[in-house]
Specification:
The structure is a homodimer of 336-residue chains.
Chain A (H helix, E strand, L loop, with lengths): L1 E2 L20 H20 L3 E2 L6 E2 H5 L11 E3 L7 E2 L5 H10 L14 E10 L11 E10 L4 H17 L5 E7 H10 L10 H12 L2 H14 L14 H11 L5 H11 L4 H17 L9 E3 L13 E7 L11 E4 L2
Parallel strand pairs in A: 2-6, 8-9
Antiparallel strand pairs in A: 3-5, 4-5, 6-7, 8-10, 10-11
Helix pairs in contact in A: 1-4, 4-10, 5-10, 7-8, 9-10
Chain lengths: 336, 336
């Protein structure tokens, strides 16, 4: 197509808020970054795939019709079910896995364990505001169908190699385990209150701990002791004694091995936490063979990563010279 | 992310009709093709860009609110204007151009002439049906802001080089000019009827000629003579004499130079057609320096390519061993 003259301007050439154009300079810079990341992911054996920009709304939102996920819904009179744009790549990945079970007879379908990567835009139907995007690229690397902690160690190695390939030098991969956090809830004896379940209070405990970088230890202690504002408020409302236990948990210092040993003492007899500690020990033990230098990985008992999602190891990555960006590479294990 | 067990299946893992998953085999085959095409486009100096998957509906549909374009509209309470998904890359390109005029003071904006390429999905909100996709990739290469026929010749060279790089051997790039088709309308003396404009009848004439590959010369002749079914029917309703003129026009044979010379005779004194013939002569003369072998390019006075869009040279490309695919690489010049 060759355009000689500008279109007679009947419509203002506006772009909706939160969406970007990539002109050649930005496009090529981004392409270089995408290619670097994809190369590392592929060198670890992650297969590239693509799922569509449109899915059934019910696939994306599941049973809930919650708008908390800010889903862009699509008007279509041609479909039996409402359509929507994916807010992440994980849900379409789960749909793809479920739709293509491995068939040993004709060897069709997806054979587990399966490593897949995806690079592509995701969409958030939220209110446009400065500094937030409603379309942005996510890079995913996932392993489906394995119990081995080798998989989690591999993800740590993947993070280390990807950031190194991008020329990032000062970063720290922090690891924890939701099982240990659940063990902490047992340790401080969180119990179901009249109108709030033990699980909801535990989630709130995790959410508060996760904020240690932002509000500091004293901020956390104050939040943990705050009285519930209503019968439905999941505030942990910890006793002084329980807060001391949380402090001693968060105060665990030393090398990764020392931290894990100290945690064993703290959680002695609490089965779920002991399981979590063993899982972390395994991950740490796999890192040297994977040539991940010890100084890039730190057991950090404060991190929780999101609320409902994860059930095992969780990890996040911070830039040591730019902590304000928060975690730039995170994930965890989901057992459903 | 590591998934140990399948998600407890509460939602069927269905994909909406007309959308595809690309599993690794398909993804890598497609990636190879995309990379080949992009490399050729870039070697011609086309800058890669990307526009978002979401635009204002008014940008995409223009003044008209026609649903003929099958636009996927997006439900959003957060925007002042309705949003929608682009059905091609051309309209967002026009929006981008209009929004970034060149400013000679600070040298910001887009300096014309500008070559841009884009590879990405477009969306058609049509009824799902076999063999049609509602999301598919389009590869665009465009030059904005030049009057030179060198640009059109370059697009022909681009088509030749791209298909050659993809390993396609038997193809034909057919070129025509809308100015010659408008000249034909003058030649057969198409005039405004009571309820239908000359322009609408001319468009209908072009639409019929474009079908010669499908319905043959006799089919075309019969359509051209058909009586209008209502006052609003733009049927050309040509006389026997006019049909003879169309036949002699479509019967023009020989080498490209011979065809152009014969057309000069046919259209002697019809200024618009003479202009179109000169434009085609220029394009043909530029092809040898661009190293496009003559046998891959054919002047074809039947092709029209779409209805309203183009105003100058138009082109399409057919696979000689698989004509059933229709045109696999087409375009034209738009002056607005």
């Amino acid at each position: 197509m060759i355009i000689d003259k500008e279109k007679k301007e009947t419509v203002k050439p506006e772009r909706p808020g939160g969406f970007l154009d990539y002109l050649p300079g930005d496009f090529l810079a981004r392409e270089k970054m995408i290619n670097t990341i994809s190369s590392v992911f592929r060198s670890f054996g992650y297969n590239p795939i693509e799922t569509p920009r449109v899915e059934f709304l019910k696939t994306l939102s599941g049973e809930e019709s919650d708008t908390g996920k800010n889903i862009f819904r699509i008007l279509s009179s041609n479909d039996s079910e409402p359509l929507a744009m994916p807010f992440d790549h994980t849900v379409p990945f789960a749909r793809l896995l479920a739709a293509n079970p491995y068939n040993s007879k004709d060897r069709s379908g997806i054979r587990l364990p399966w490593r897949r990567m995806v690079v592509g835009p995701v969409f958030r139907g939220e209110k446009p505001q400065a500094g937030r995007y409603r379309q942005f690229y996510q890079f995913d690397a996932d392993i489906a169908g394995t119990d081995s902690m080798m998989a989690d160690a591999e993800i740590v190695a993947l993070i280390f190699n990807t950031l190194s390939a991008l020329g990032v030098k000062k970063f720290l991969i922090r690891i924890n385990n939701r099982k240990i956090l659940n063990g902490l809830a047992e340790l401080v004896e969180i119990k179901t209150r009249d109108k709030v379940s033990k699980e909801d209070i535990t989630k709130e405990l995790m959410r508060i701990l996760d904020k240690v970088d932002k509000i500091g230890l004293e901020g956390i202690v104050s939040e943990l002791q705050k009285k519930p504002e209503s019968d439905f408020d999941p505030a942990p409302f910890l006793s002084n004694e329980a807060v001391l236990k949380v402090r001693s948990y968060l105060d665990i210092q030393g090398s990764n091995t020392e931290r894990l040993n100290k945690a064993k003492n703290v959680f002695s007899g609490i089965k779920i936490a002991e399981e979590g500690i063993v899982e972390l020990e395994k991950i740490i033990s796999f890192l040297a063979p994977l040539e991940v230098p010890a100084e890039f990985v730190s057991i950090d008992f404060s991190i929780a990563r999101g609320l409902d999602y994860y059930t095992g190891p969780v990890m996040e990555t911070i830039l040591l010279d730019a902590k304000r960006f928060g975690s730039i590479f995170s994930g965890g294990r989901k057992i459903r």
